[in-house]
Amino acid sequence: MIVIGIDPGSIVTGIGIVQQTQMGLRLVTQCEIRTRAYRTFNDKLKKIYDEILKLVALYSPTHISLETIFFSNNVQSALKLGHVRGCVLALAISQNLNILEYSPKQVKRIITGNGNASKEQVAYMVRIKLHPSTSEFSRIAYGWWRLLSSDALSTKNIEKRINTCLENNITTFDHADIYGSYQCEAYFGRVLKQIPSLRNQIELVTKSGIKLVHPDFPERKRKIYDLHSTHIVQSLEASLRKFGTDYVDVLLIHRPNPLCDFEDCAKGLTSVVETGKAKYVGVSNFSAWEFETLQSFLSIQLVTNQLEISLCNLKSFTDGSLHKCIERRATPMAWSPLGGGKMLLEPYDELGRKRLDMLVMLSRKYECNITQLALAWLLLHPANILPIIGTNQTRRIAEASYAVQIKLGEEDWFELWEVSTGARIP
Ligand SMILES: NC(=O)c1ccc[n+]([C@@H]2O[C@H](COP(=O)([O-])OP(=O)(O)OC[C@H]3O[C@@H](n4cnc5c(N)ncnc54)[C@H](OP(=O)(O)O)[C@@H]3O)[C@@H](O)[C@H]2O)c1
């Protein structure tokens, strides 16, 4: 079944096309029809009609789903909305589409459980696909890299931290085989083994590809990168044992390797997906061309590139790596989205001072704190950057999750861009 969902409007009409598959719902495409530039109302209706007709011809939906009309105080707007709906309904009838209608309250109830939820609460619940073919992940993820620098290593404390994340809609957890000198996954796994029902409530991301010198591997004389299929499979199997689960949601290649045999690396990634050990695969710290080279050896999609992205590290905005994600419909994940905390502390240079001053100024405007603002700045980017926060303080997890409710204005986005690059836009 393919459904074309339409949120009609006389200025912007939002469209999403979804397909019911054996794996669940899949987002086929989404777009907007903008009609502000059309002079007469009839021209706007014609534009909406023509564009939807093109989509129907292209994707052959069987159903059309429309939001029912709601009565606002503005009668003119309600009437115009009625005309747009009439135009869409006429098209649906002429194309023999089954018509489904939902009230805004029904939609809110389905997403949040409460029909009277605010727009902010709806935004708060929104989840994201890493690629149109994947299941959903939380809009902000939590990373366990710093776990061993905290003194809260008891299973009880880790469980508490996981629960704080879940209470704040953070369900995606980022790991790597090497974190905490190969120990972090095992600490996390103790909780998973105690509470097996947790596994279905979370998404696990882990990484492979770095070999550290470590007493468990006496044959290693120095740190190297190893992206051979055998290492990829073996390290994921070790991660699964530590987690006490039989699959991760995403396996990432941790870093590119100048000596990479891409064909063999692709063979390893394909094998972990085919054997069900990983639902999806992706990369981390890859340049655009490294991403494309590996993708060219794969028939499955790389669903993400986990990159260092923050107001302190803007490289990916201009080196093509973010744009490669957009081109490949892969959602980038941002590691150290707060610059590892350094952008929030006393700045050590002039640029840092100006950036912090701007963050403080804008945080007053948006009635939030600077952490939330720095994350909201990333969230506004059209690549749908998914930040991975790494605080060891539960209070800060809850605070950071509020960032998804802040919609930064584009002018303020550019203010932060300019102070962070240290240059006026031309
Ligand atoms: N793919 C890769 O190569 C790669 C590399 C690095 C990291 N990662 C992933 O990314 C995750 C996040 O990285 P990250 O930990 O660097 O992220 P981050 O959220 O940018 O930084 C976290 C650090 O910032 C500090 N911090 C947070 N809020 C603060 C505030 N208001 N004032 C002062 N300090 C503050 C935290 O200290 P407190 O603990 O005291 O709050 C913590 O030390 C990692 O856990 C890991 O999963 C991936």
TrEMBL record:
Q: Which GO terms describe its cellular component?
A: cytosol
Keyword entries, A-Z: Cytoplasm, DNA damage, DNA repair, Hydrolase, Magnesium, Metal-binding
Q: Which InterPro entries match?
A: AKR_Detox_Biosynth, Aldo/ket_reductase_CS, NAD(P)_OxRdtase_dom_sf, NADP_OxRdtase_dom, RNaseH-like_sf, X-over_junc_endoDNase_RuvC
Keyword set includes Iron: no
The biological processes this protein is annotated with in GO are: DNA recombination; DNA repair
* Keyword DNA damage included in the entry's annotation: yes
Q: Which PROSITE patterns match?
A: ALDOKETO_REDUCTASE_2
User: Residue limits of the NADP-dependent oxidoreductase domain?
Assistant: 139-416
Top-rank taxon of the source lineage equals: Eukaryota
Question: What are the protein's GO molecular function terms?
Answer: DNA endonuclease activity; hydrolase activity; metal ion binding; oxidoreductase activity
UniProt xrefs under Pfam families: Aldo_ket_red, RuvC
Quote the PANTHER family the UniProt record gives: NADH-SPECIFIC METHYLGLYOXAL REDUCTASE-RELATED, OXIDOREDUCTASE YDHF
Which HAMAP family does the entry mention? Answer: RuvC
- What this protein is called in its record is NADP-dependent oxidoreductase domain-containing protein
**Organism of provenance:** Potamilus streckersoni
